[in-house]
Design brief:
Length: 358
């Protein structure tokens, strides 16, 4: 089954799968939970625009500062997959308003070919294990597509975006301590679980997480109380693709509960995810697009199968469109297969929303 898929996959995935077995014998210190240590990608030219950080001090965090946990996972082995440099500057109200007015001038958008997309996805996913749910929304025109809308799958480390947004509801970024800012940086850019645990406590645990989600309009996402081995249980939060799109929409909407400055800080961190963790949603971006994302990958103890998730925002170059994208999967035997599924779903949906120019 694996060899069959690898034979049809792209060269980068074939290389990834070939490198996986000898790299699984990592020392215990390299084992990481729920997204602390991602597949590492080799250096290749970046396809997307990089952005300088906004004016003002920003604390540099070295990768070795991350102290990964050992939880109900095994190590994610480094894989030779193409990197994507993803970065997104803070969203300012004027830019959002410009995009909204452009959408209004464009008139009624063409309907999304839902049946065509569904059949395309069904063909791609035939033979791939586990459930998949996905959603894409053009935040400028309101066009949207949902795949397996009723599925509720776990977030893995994609939950860390909601943890940060819940924190900023309580304390604006400008009033956060240096320690909390450092934890936010580690949690989003490096997917560090120690930092996520500390901020989870700061927001009041599962009740605070759920309460914040309600303020952002989430309907299917509730925090899980207690501890899962040596971590809190934010990684097994069940959610819907639709809720994850709502969360992304809240990061570019002036009418939501977060101030523009705080939304900009979340997007800044999501747009500066370290190399090796920038797969997923970015596969659906065109050259020159700006991407902000958060990924998650977690190996379940009960099934020894991987949950692989990618949630993010694609800002189209020059076309004044923002696309919120969420893809959640479970059941892959190897994390590389989960990544290929996530990226394949995202690209196959997005090709019905727009065409990338050469």
């Amino acid at each position: 089954m694996i060899a069959g898929r690898a034979a049809q996959a792209s060269p980068r995935l074939a290389v990834a799968l070939a490198l996986l077995p000898p790299l699984l014998a990592l020392p215990a210190s390299a084992h990481a939970p729920a997204s602390a240590r991602p597949p590492v990608r080799g250096p290749q030219p970046a396809a997307h625009r990089a952005w300088e950080p906004p004016a003002g001090p920003r604390q540099a965090v070295a990768p070795q500062a991350v102290a990964p946990h050992v939880v109900a996972l095994q190590a994610v082995a480094p894989q030779a997959v193409v990197p994507r440099v993803v970065a997104l500057p803070p969203v300012v109200p004027e830019e959002v308003a410009l995009r909204e007015s452009a959408g209004a001038r464009a008139g009624k958008p063409a309907p999304v070919p839902a049946k065509e997309i569904g059949e395309r996805l069904d063909r791609f996913l035939a033979g791939r294990p586990g459930p998949v749910t996905a959603m894409v929304e053009d935040l400028t025109t309101g066009r949207r597509y949902r795949y397996h809308r009723g599925e509720r799958l776990i977030t893995a480390s994609a939950a860390k975006v909601q943890i940060l947004m819940a924190l900023l509801l309580r304390t604006p970024w400008r009033k956060l301590s240096e320690a909390s800012r450092r934890d936010a940086d580690l949690m989003i850019r490096y997917s560090d679980n120690h930092a996520a645990d500390r901020l989870w406590l700061r927001i009041g645990g599962a009740p605070g997480f759920t309460k914040a989600g309600r303020r952002f309009g989430l309907r299917h996402t509730e925090g899980v109380p207690g501890a899962c081995l040596d971590l809190y249980c934010w990684g097994i939060t069940r959610t819907s693709a639709e809720d994850q799109v709502r969360l992304v929409r809240a990061l570019v909407s002036d009418g939501g509960p977060l101030r523009a400055d705080d939304r900009g800080q979340v997007l800044r961190l999501m747009g500066a995810v370290v190399a090796g963790q920038n797969w997923g949603v970015s596969a659906a971006a065109c050259k020159g697009d700006r991407v902000a994302l958060k990924n998650g990958w977690l190996r379940r103890v009960s099934t020894r199968r991987w949950a692989t998730v990618s949630v993010g925002l694609i800002r189209g170059k020059g076309e004044r469109h923002d696309y919120a994208v969420a893809v959640l999967t479970e059941g892959s035997a190897e994390v590389g297969h989960g990544i290929a599924t996530v990226e394949g779903v995202a690209t196959r949906i997005m090709q019905s929303f727009r065409t990338c120019r050469a």
